[in-house]
Amino acid sequence: MDALKEQDPARIGGHTLLARLGAGGMGQVYLGRSPGGRLVAIKVIRDEIVDHPEALARFRREVATARAVRSAYTANLIDASLEAAPYWLATEYVAGPTLAAAVGERGAVPAETCRALFAALAEGLAAVHAHGVTHRDLKPQNVILAAQGPQLIDFGIARGVGQTALTETGFASGTPGFTAPEVLMRNQVGPEADIFALGATLAYAATGRPPFGHGDPAGVSYRAVHEPVDLVGVEPGLAALIQACVDKNPAARPGPAEVIARCAVGSALVEDGFYRSLAELGDAAPQVPSTPTTAAPGDLDLHDRPTAPGGPPGRQAPPPPPVGGYTPTQAAPTVAVVRQPRSPWLVAAAVVAAGAGTAGLLTFLPGDRDGDGKGTGAVESVAPGKTSAAPTDGKEGTSARRPPAYVEPTNPSRDYWTAEPDSSDYGQGSCNLPAEEPNRYLQTSISAADSDAPYTSGKARIGVRVKGFAAGAEEPYYVSVAVKPPHEIDPDTGRPIEGIPAQNLDLGYTSAPAELSSDWAYLTYPDDFRKFVNGKEAGRAVPVENDPGDWTVLFLHVTGTRRYASIDCRGFVSK
Predict the structure, then answer these.
(1) What single-letter DSSP state applies at residue 76?
(2) Which residues are known to be catalytic?
């Protein structure tokens, strides 16, 4: 979690705000304290979409769902305001990592623990379905591994049987790889689709891999409809149950009661040692960060936020103009997980999920990432001004105070950012792989070069800094940014190879490594980006309009020309 910012209110509906928990396409989520002292998670719908009828209808439906569904597997609704802006809801706060974060850190879950988790989530779905509601977006990011048992979160697209879906014609809501074939093909939504998502979620838990592979959403969805789920290495009995849940025919899938029976659980999930170790990755008692000295006065209300000159009330003032290439700006959090055991990013996940990180003029909270990013293990997180290894160009020694001139790829890059369905206008999405070397001090931003709007075309402004930089540190901290098109680019045309576009396994176009400080440094894409091969420049960056789709932005800690590690992954949609 992050400290409140100057533009944040001190209170919402009688609840005292303590910290920021996350942000996304729908809104900002805060950690709050009720008048009686209870911790709550408060989601406030964004000012920018208050006038969007579909967004408001979805938010009201989320509140109605939270009010209707009372279960040990969902967070109880505490309070809400739906009559006029600002719109918000508050639910009880539940600490714990998401299943995505836990698997990203610890790897595949043992078969017996998977069975117990399978049964608990099936029981949770049964309770939800008993209220006439289907979740419609069950996935590892929407399962909190709480100490008392798993919790289902984010009912923003849930709906009751017979309700009209709030989606455009031809669009199926959900997440690629976890959305059932009948939803993708016919937008046929029912309890059976939740069972498919449950099976796909447990396939991810059992293997540590996306159930239908990586890549662009269309390709992943195609495999979900036509190809078998990835169950390589899964214990046969568990694999058979998962396979039954993800059957292409919804009528052939087992119901929650059958799933529970086939799991044959003989003890409580919370008694499972491996599950307890996962749940303990989160903070049971969240440590609220200190509010900056420039924070708003204690009596600031939600309607009294700073206003941009000439702009409507409640809008954040634009950042000051660049000075010497550096500009201070404001920020909002992201979501990430850890690819291998790394430094601890303790997460106390909000049960009201705002979605994965947003692109637009945002920075990404590098510690607690919207309940989706964590890590512990043998390698410590790199502090500002420290490097895990002395910089080198990969061939010969390099002065610790002189950055490499460029970055050259050494292995295929399998990092891909994918936009969340129905949210590309807000830059919401997630990466398939977690950071190799997470840095809790890093902050980043992506926006249109000529405005603070979410980036989709033209030139982009990419910002980066290390928060809390220690002056006079022993070693500098060099960072390069890699911007990766979704498809392999033909160097002769600057566009995807004709025919069937090939998935891009290249690092893309990189910026010159630079030493960071606590000041914001900004780059312009494509002007500041090049490609290098075998020590030579192999081409300038292509305009994003050349390759419509989901572009990936990697932030790399560089210690040499061919020595680098990903420290954050973001993205944007090119239209």
Answers:
(1) P
(2) 137
